[in-house]
Amino acid sequence: MQSDSISESLTYVGKEPDINTLRYAYEQTTVELESYFDLCRTSYDDRRNWWAGKSRDHRKHGADAFPWEGAADMEAHTIDERITRLVSLFMSSLNRSNVRAFPVESTDIPRSKIVSSFLKWMVSSGYIPRFKREMELGANYLLERGILMTYVGWHREDRRFLQRLDLNQIAEIAPEVVELISGGENDDELVALLEATFPGVTKKRAKKALKDLRKNGEAELPIVRRQIDAPEVKTLAPDGDFFFPPYVTDPQRAPYCFWRTYYTAQELENKVLTDGWDEDFVDYIIQHYRGVSIDSIEREQEGRRSTSLTDNAYEANELIEIVYGYQRLIDPEDGSEGIYCTVFHKQFTGNEEAPGYAKFELLNGYEDYPVVVTKLSEDSKRLYDTQTIPDILRGIQNQVKVERDSRIDRNSLATLPPILHPVGQAPTDWGPGRMIPYRRKGDLDFAPTPPSPVGSIEIEKTMEAQADRLCGLDETSQISQVRKQFLVDKFLQHSAEVLQMCYKCFQRFGPDSVFFRVTGSPDPVAFNKGNPDENYDIMISYDVLNSDPETQEKKLNQMVALTQLDRSGRINIDSLLDAAANSIDPVLADRVLQPTEAAQEQVVNQVTDDLAKIFAGIEMPARPNGAQIALTVIQQYASQPDVAQRLQSDEAFAARLEKYAGQYTFQMQQAQNAQIGRVGTEPAQMGDIQTQGM
Predict the structure, then answer these.
(1) What are the residues facing 256 on neighbouring strands?
(2) SS3 632
(3) Are residues 527 and 511 in contact, defined by beta-carbon separation less than 8 angstroms?
(4) How confident is the model at residue 80 (pLDDT cuts 50, 70, 90)?
(5) R_g over Cα of the chain
(6) Domain ranges for the chain
(7) CA distances (Å), origin 49, targets 30, 54, 76, 608
(8) pLDDT digits over 22-50, tens only?
(9) What does pTM read for this prediction?
(10) Contact 149, 236 (CB under 8 A)
(11) Mapping DSSP to helix (H, G, I), strand (E, B) and coil, where does residue 218 land?
């Protein structure tokens, strides 16, 4: 292909996509990324302890067996253990982290707090389907393959269900159909109306339905129901699902990228209904391109199906490969940029029966590709020049395996030493219990057992400790702790970018409002998606030291000590309470903590109820919380003319009220005395409430 025509096709938007150019770019991209794919295959095998000639009994067999047939060939899970521990740490950090939305402009400030609550709800409630599962898979990809890619979009899915409907049910959907049936109108008009009313119904089914309705008053007809209308988050394998050009340094500046995925025939047919895919394209692809061969490295978490490295692919006869081609294209008329998506098959360019693509559209509202990309190591500008945890630990794991194999082999020789015998009386061999020629006459004897090397176990422990330090899992090393926090921050930053894109998608494509539960509130509230121009910086933060109960307790005690030194009220006690509760258990904190405004309102309502009962002659005890607010309510209550008048005339009522207020005053004095005892000076006055003379 001419390079000029390729460049133009990949730069400027036209009325239709250039399928030939897209196919060529896709094929070249996958070929040029082969070196990175090979890195991923190696990392995949190292983590799972796969190597050529591996047997299920963990012994060496065959002509290449060394040092003997049946020698030890053990697994060493140094790499997998560290990756698994880090993934657990990442997910624990995500589960216990604090999600906050910071306003970018002053106009965004009023909604920032409720947006933060909404984001927490999106993650915890399942509003983003499989969010945490996808992020767990992403954590594995980041550590094992060095790159984490996450697709973010909005997913609407309608499903057709065959349902038996009677005339009353049909009247709710299309009353004109029932009217025409009862009016005895001609069948052709009714059949056409049924076809228009029930999407996907064939003329044959419509005629049968009409017949059944007239005969039985009911018929089987397809109805469409919306199954999904929510953000969509998918972790993409960087070596099998999503591809950027190999020279890319900033993924969002790439001229194109590709997402390879697989659908069943049923899913493709549903795309015609839900996403507007070309029906002729779908029918042709189902008929001619069903069945794929998927390489083992592209199986995501499923892994290899056998121990043979030659058997590295499996056939999926019911799957069909589809490619989404994303392009950053320029409108030649005004020079404006847009993100365009073309859905195609890598082997089909179109013919008289069907076009070469299922859909070509501008991704309205998208300024960037719908994918978040993070590298494990930023030691090179190019995206695909990255390190992996298996890269870092490969040598250590191999040495651990050598030490284990050698100790097992020495134990085998010690248990069944080789037998010495005269030359020529037995074949030459080597191994536990084998017979070895010996050039002297005499009785048979056991060969001496090789001495166990001094420090083999210590060498293995040293290797394992070094692996921990390199991954930030050494609890005793400060540098290791810094490394661990660095890795957690990288993962949480990626999660925050994903969540930010989810919120943007909700603003663009979601329903006008969603009911969700605010932290501490028993009743759901309506969240309006607001102005799509709203902009927030989403942050997800977590201190890995909080995973240590002793460190967590120490930090909380330090914060409490600071409150004792706070003479001017600079510390927000409510915020401190939120932070402390979330550090202990964020899930439990969401259940037990309520917003400050709600808590204050609750105290006011409770005290107001108590005062009504006191007015009616019932003696009430003080509540355990909210003393200052309660005294304010009591003071306002006592100043009311009717209450003040009764206080002067009714000694019993005055005594009940004074006793009630005195209990709250005592609570405040206790708190103040406790602070004076700890600090040594009297704290700032919180406000005196007069209870005498009421």
Answers:
(1) 327
(2) helix
(3) no
(4) very high
(5) 36
(6) 156-226, 390-467, 595-679
(7) 26, 9, 7, 69
(8) 999 999 999 999 999 999 999 999 999 99
(9) 0.76
(10) yes
(11) strand
